[in-house]
UniProtKB/TrEMBL annotation:
Its EC number is 5.2.1.8. The lineage of its organism: Bacteria, Pseudomonadati, Pseudomonadota, Gammaproteobacteria, Vibrionales. NCBIfam families: PRK10770.1. Residues 1-22 form the signal peptide. This is Chaperone SurA. Chaperone involved in the correct folding and assembly of outer membrane proteins. Recognizes specific patterns of aromatic residues and the orientation of their side chains, which are found more frequently in integral outer membrane proteins. May act in both early periplasmic and late outer membrane-associated steps of protein maturation. It is found in: Periplasm.
Length: 434
């Protein structure tokens, strides 16, 4: 695709030079004007060759040429409109990105780029023209994505509803081994008494999440029917559970604590001991603490590293606690106030160097000083735990499904609006005129 004015100038120059050549040559002609751009016959011919090559490779029959050319013309018009939008946004696909896309395309076809070039040449397609077609496709796609994303609004209720439907479908045939604690609220209890039971239930949940033994707490506190069995109900499908249990269990995995939640008799806490028949998602969280020293015009890399080495030696020798050193030295105010502790986090949240340390460092060991984009650190891993993320994974999947649905709908609407507001004209061919 070429700028209209520069294309017309190029065609005029070709016309001038044609007079000096003995044999007449067919000039590239404008077939469609789209706002201030033009589509040339060579653009149509190049895409026609590509479509025929792809169809032949897939043994796909094509419609008659007149129908196929109309389809190609419509694609080129819509592509041109999107490229004009891309120009407004300043979108450019550089050669590195283009080469990566072509390499990936060749790999998906199980061939090298050299073999791809040979295949194109065998079908009469110039590799340079093919590259520019790819660049235009990528540029148009990026412009479309930017514009359509702005039009998409996904409400939390939509995600919850679809996640519930996905979970319900996946729950068919799934069995759970569950345990239960029930804290009773006596009939006629005052608001203060009800609040006290609610607080007690939350405290039990906090203890369980910190690693307390569920059966011991059930023996001590539960008023439920399975209290003397440590709260264990055994294996059940959701349709075999009390409705109040089934309503609370969505797509949680092994080890999940559910609750506290309220019923007419009091507050309940569930633990999912095991799951059979449900694909679960688990992640490892790390509880770590660190000390950060930043370099400056008066503190070099060597100076920052030396400060941390001195602090580390003092901590290991028992002359100073990690918390005291963090409060005195760390340039991370959020964690320094908490003795350097970062709390439970998944390592993926950290920058690569820090992530590598907290993933590989043995618990209780203080690292040697190391550098990240933030400065120099020492870090200690206090503990690790596996956490079920099945419920979050289902919600993420629900969000992606909703986004895909809405993106396709909004993309079509945006393209229609773009075309409706465009100036599109097909100049008459000389041999069509009277």
């Amino acid at each position: 695709m070429k700028n209209w004015k520069s294309s017309l100038l190029g065609i005029a120059l070709l016309g001038l030079s044609a007079g000096t050549i003995a044999a007449p040559q067919e000039l590239d002609r404008i077939v469609t004007i789209v706002n201030d751009s033009v589509i040339l016959q060579s653009d149509v011919d190049a895409m026609l060759k590509t479509v025929r090559m792809n169809a032949a490779g897939q043994n796909q029959p094509l419609p008659p040429d007149d129908v196929l050319v109309n389809q190609i013309m419509e694609k080129l018009v819509m592509e041109t409109l999107q490229l004009q939008q891309a120009e407004q946004f300043g979108i450019r696909i550089d050669d590195n990105r283009l080469d990566q896309a072509i390499n990936q395309m060749a790999a998906e076809q199980q061939m090298t780029v050299g073999q791809l070039q040979q295949m194109l040449a065998a079908n009469g397609i110039s590799f340079s023209i093919f590259r520019e077609q790819m660049r235009r496709d990528m540029t148009a796609s990026e412009a479309r994505t930017i514009q359509v994303r702005r039009r998409i609004n996904i409400l939390p209720q939509e995600v919850e509803t679809l996640a519930g439907q996905l979970s319900q479908h996946e729950q068919q045939g799934v069995r759970y081994n569950i345990s239960h604690i029930q804290l009773r609220v006596e009939e006629g209890a005052s608001a203060v008494e009800r609040d006290a039971v609610a607080n007690e239930a939350q405290q039990l949940v906090n203890q369980l999440k910190d690693g307390a033994d569920f059966a011991n707490l059930a023996y001590s506190y539960s008023k439920g029917p399975k209290a003397l069995q440590g709260g264990e109900w055994g294996w059940m499908r959701k349709e075999e559970m009390p409705t109040i249990f089934a309503d609370q269990i969505q797509s949680q995995g092994t080890g999940a604590i559910v609750g506290p939640f309220r019923s007419g008799v009091g507050y309940h806490i569930l633990k999912i001991n095991q799951v059979d028949g449900l694909e679960t998602v688990s992640v490892t969280e790390v509880n770590a603490r660190h000390i950060l020293v930043k370099t400056s015009v008066i503190l070099s890399d060597e100076g920052a590293k030396e400060q941390l080495e001195q602090a580390r030696r003092a901590i290991l020798a028992g002359e100073r606690s990690f918390a005291d050193a963090a409060q005195a030295l760390s340039a991370d105010p959020g964690s320094a106030a908490n003795g350097g502790e970062l709390g439970w986090q998944t390592p993926d949240l950290y920058v690569p160097e820090f992530k590598e340390k907290v993933e590989t460092l043995p618990e209780g060991m203080i690292s040697e000083p190391f550098k990240t984009v933030h400065g120099w650190h020492i870090v200690e891993v206090l503990d690790r735990r596996d956490v079920d993320r099945t419920d979050a994974a289902v919600k993420n999947r629900a969000y992606r499904i909703l986004f895909s649905r809405k993106f396709n709908e909004e993309a079509q609407a945006w393209l229609q609006e773009l075309r409706a507001g465009a100036f599109i004209e097909q100049p008459e061919r000389a041999d069509d005129q009277g």
